[in-house]
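for the writeup, i need someone to sanity check this before i put it in the appendix. the sequnce is what the collaborator sent (i think, or maybe the updated version? ugh). structure was predicted straight from it, no edits. if anything looks off just tell me and ill rerun, i have time this weekend
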Amino acid sequence: MFRQLRSEAEDALRSALTALDLPTGDLGIEEPPEDVDAVLASSAAFRLAGEVGAPPPKVAADIADAVDTEALDYVGSVTTQGPYVNFLPNDTYFAETLTGATDEAFGRLPDRETSVVVEHTSANPTGPVHVGRARNPIIGDALARVLDYAGYDVDRHYYVNDAGRQIAVFTWAYETFDESDLPDPERDSPEYEMVRYYRKGNAFLEEGPESEVEDAEAEIQAILKGLEDGDDDTYDRVAEVVDTVLGGMQTTLSRLPAEFDEFVKETRFMRNGDTDALVDRLKELDCAVYDEDAWQLELPEFEKNLVFLRSDGTSLYTTRDLAHHEWKFDNYDRAVTVLGEDHHLQADQLAAALELLGEDTDQLQQVFYSWVNLPEGGMSTREGTGIDLDDLLDEAIARARDEVESRLDDRTRGDLDEADIERIAHQVGVGAVRYDIVSKQPTKGITFEWERALDFEAQSAPYVQYVHARCCGITEDAGEIPDDPDFDQLGEPEELDLLRVLARFPAVIEEAADDLQPHTVATYTRTVAETFNAFYRECPVLDADEETRAARLALVAGTRHTVANALDAIGVEAPTSM
């Protein structure tokens, strides 16, 4: 309902300003402070005071008087507070919110008939997923989910770097060294087994006998040349390594969960001729030069040129990525890419080159993120700087299990068996990691702290998850939820506060999708949890009289659906019991 009221308030304000012969370019619509009993406010009087030649409060009063509330469906009254024009909701707003929130699909927006490809993670397939980069799949998957909730047709892609030097080194090492010369793998999983060859190969290239290193480098270059030349045998050799490692990485990523609709290999754009055709077009650009044994684009706005072809005729990652993005533009209406903060230059140069090639880069949006750090001594399962995501998730589940077991004595509802405890430990542990990471603005650095992430009482995933579990317990005990709840039975301040918060959920999804900021959904879940807890303390549900009980049960069901869907939109599970 908030979206509808906002649209209605904007139209009414625009009409009022027009009637007063005032400009309507900036309506100044915003959400008022919590202590203001309004859903929306306008600060337009600030902007217009100088033009009108009157104090802002006087301008605000004139605007409020010009709004015709009789013609509005959801705005009950328009008031002023100093220079602000406030829009207050009517009973219809609350009643339709109560009914709408009881729908299990509450928060999902209509189909926009717009396709979006979200590319995220795309870590080089050279070994296990590292904690520092874990923010990419978590943010990327949350973005894809939020866009899906907002009505977009979303595909999730992982762009596989299977043509660079690292993969050539990996392939050579896998074919060169014997497993008996390698240490035991850290886990019984393909990527952990394969990374041993990669590490052995790099160590050999750094420390091996000079003549043998030269021979190895020649073999590595032959692999790279074979890929450029379209040699099927070379592709098969590389694919064996890449696909094996990716298989293991997928298992780890699915624990978050982060799922993908397609793994798009960069060699695809070499084999189908797209890269060669792109190079020919780049050479024809006015800013293309051959300098320092390489073809480059001179881009004056950047400190360095964009190299797109080496002297030996081999392409670069960015060259192939340009072909990849042109393919995206041909197949999707929008393209969103999640990138580490160290990829700013690469991303900006790629966008500049796409514009030179005549592409509409308004289709392209990039979300940058900073790294995830762990406090010293934060992990007990491994030592050193290389902390794998699997280690973090294992420890999160173990700590969550301990917390759940420690709280068993406080339970007032049925006992949990071992399967229940294990289920909840996974939901809470993984949810704590994911929620703690997605709830921060992507560009801000994160130091992951166990005590904060797993705190059942603070603003964390368990805190929100517990509200969902409590709602499930109440509705389970109550039995049937009324299909047509009577809003007239509600009137307590805590009831109306909760309805105001629930009404905003579809708008929160819309804004998070428009701004590509899923952390705002996480922030919203905390607001819902806090507001519900205040309602639960002050408004008995099961012990209320029959009609009030039915209305409050509908409000609990609406909270349950809102929390479940909001958590789902950021990829966090909502336990039915805790």
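Residues 546-569 form the longest helix (24 residues). Residues 377-385 have pLDDT under 50 and may be disordered.
thx in advance!!
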